[in-house]
Amino acid sequence: MRKVTLEDVFVHPITQKYLGRSGIAHAVAVAEFAYIFAGQFDVDPDKATKAALLHDVGHYTWYRDGEWDYDMYKENDIHAIKGANRAHKLLVRIGEDPQAAKEIAVAILLHTDSYLPKGSLERQPLQEVVAFADEADEQAGGKHHYKTISHEAALKRIQALDTAIEQKTAQHFG
Ligand SMILES: [Fe+2]
Q1: Which residues are near ligand 1, the ion (C-beta closer than 5 Å)?
Q2: Is residue 1 part of a domain?
Q3: Is the pLDDT of residue 92 over 70?
Q4: How far away, in angstroms, is 138 Cα from ligand 1 center?
Q5: Whole-angstrom distance, CA of residue 50 vs CA of residue 129
Q6: pLDDT of 52-91, one tens digit each?
Q7: Domain around 116
Q8: Ligand 1: centre distance to CA 163 (Å)
Q9: pTM exceeds 0.85
């Protein structure tokens, strides 16, 4: 049994608050992709899905006159930095292993290079899995942030992931 499940993370009010901004449907879909890719890259699915679920908790809404301002976002956004910090604080608070909390936070920090100086970012497998999972659910114009899902449906998919992760970690990472 893991100390902290994906459901523990998902139902926490902090997660609900920030995912409410960036899109719960997107977060759940990215967690599912991360589970699949974790299998392909031989990465711990527990860390990969937690990082994927929380990867966008650092988003701020960039509005000008009631409209989303993409240029303003591009210039000023540091959601990966903020998200890594927020996720780390939350995970430690709910009892996550400190080493795992650090790895998850770093994967969130590196899930995008949009805020970094130009150059190639070399990611390790866990970080790569989270970045690929995010890209897999991306839609043009940032539409993936606006997909909707009911709380019940989202929770069911999170619980299904927890069950799958429990089985897998018992086999390979226990
Ligand atoms: Fe994302």
Answers
A1: 56, 134
A2: no
A3: yes
A4: 7
A5: 12
A6: 999 999 988 767 777 777 788 878 889 999 999 999 999 9
A7: 6-173
A8: 24
A9: yes
